[in-house]
Write a structure and sequence with these properties.
The chain has helices at about 5-10, 20-30, 105-115, 135-145, 155-160, 175-185, and strands spanning about 35-40, 45-50, 50-55, 60, 65, 75-80, 80-90, 95, 120-125, 130-135, 150-155, 160-165, 165-170, 175. The chain has about 190 residues and is α+β, with helices and mostly antiparallel strands. A hairpin with a 6-residue loop joins strand 3 and strand 4 (about 60).
Length: about 190
């Protein structure tokens, strides 16, 4: 059963969808639901339109205001008695700016990473390079502590992260999410 986003992607409307949202949907569609519990958290934002009267002419003026609450990470994935809490980021270029990863997202991942069996991290897609990596939040924290940079270069992900293999379908990608999760789970035993 295809989700609404999946139907939009398959109906040729993919070009109209934000590339980050397309990446998230492709990532979501890479899971086999019979093997894995996958929960995609909704991005929380909204808008309201207060009515304001113009003091000079007494006409009503509608103004749109936006608010955005601090949302939870993008995905919660339960696999092989491990809970993966994942924040997904897609970026063009050879580095990802640190300001693309919000403080409340880092704080949430850090607060959950202390629990046994919970693996928290970032999935970063370098769309121009067609490379996608998983990096644990502890490794991300080490980078922040050790380097005074405003972005994380792809070379750091190549050294410290887990490369997520993929294959390209006609216009979308399918990621080897199980290979990545197995690499993360079993790397401590190698």
């Amino acid at each position: 059963m295809l989700s609404i986003m999946g139907r939009l992607l398959s109906s040729g409307l993919a070009a109209m969808i934000n590339s980050g949202k397309r990446f998230e949907q492709n990532f979501r569609d890479s899971f086999n639901n019979s093997e894995t519990l996958v929960e995609r958290m909704n991005d929380s934002s909204g808008a309201w339109q207060p009515v304001i009267k113009c003091p000079k002419c007494e006409t009503k003026v509608f103004r749109t205001s936006r608010f955005q609450s601090k949302s939870k990470p993008d995905f919660f994935v339960y696999y092989k008695k491990r809970l993966f809490i994942l924040e997904l980021k897609s970026h063009k270029g050879v580095s990802i700016p640190l300001n693309a990863i919000k403080d409340h997202q880092i704080d949430y991942l850090n607060s959950r990473a202390k629990y046994h069996g919970v693996i928290c991290g970032l999935i970063v897609n370098f769309s121009d390079l067609e490379e996608t990596f998983f990096i644990e939040i502890s490794v991300f924290n080490e980078f922040i502590k050790d380097y005074s940079r405003k972005s994380i270069p792809v070379d750091y992900f190549r050294e410290a992260g887990v490369l997520i293999k993929f294959y390209k379908k006609v216009s979308n990608y399918k990621y080897d999410v199980y290979g990545m999760m197995n690499d993360v789970i079993y790397r401590d035993f190698l």
